[in-house]
Amino acid sequence: MIVRKPRTLDQCRSGDRVVVGAVEGAPGRIDRLAAVGIMPGIELRVQQTRPVVVVESDETVLALEREIAAGVVVLALANDTRKAAE
Fold first, then answer.
1. Strands 43-48, 53-57: parallel, antiparallel or unpaired by DSSP?
2. Which CATH number covers residue 21?
3. Could you tell me the residue range of the domain that residue 35 belongs to?
4. Model-level pTM?
């Protein structure tokens, strides 16, 4: 189950588990992100946020520039207990 208001991937913290809700930006950027598996409905685990955003999806680890991560709208997962406690 998905909870909390949408935010962008660059606003997440290390350890957050999120689901991609939308990818915003130029069509070429959206296509490139889709080619590496970043598309609506995909679950991601944020590994780090500085100096770049590093996310894990299944067995794939990706590093995204903060500008690109700012175009990925995500929703926190309900079982992300650290967020639920805030």
1. antiparallel
2. 2.30.30.90
3. 2-84
4. 0.84
Six-digit token pair at 48? 């780090």
Q: How many domains does the structure of the chain reveal?
A: 1
pLDDT range class, residue 83, cuts 50, 70, 90: very low
Helix, coil or strand: residue 31: helix
Please identify which residue in the block is written with the tokens 């500008």. Answer: 67
At 20-44, the pLDDT tens digits run: 999 999 999 999 999 999 999 999 9
CA neighbours closer than 13 Å in the CB half-sphere of residue 83: 19
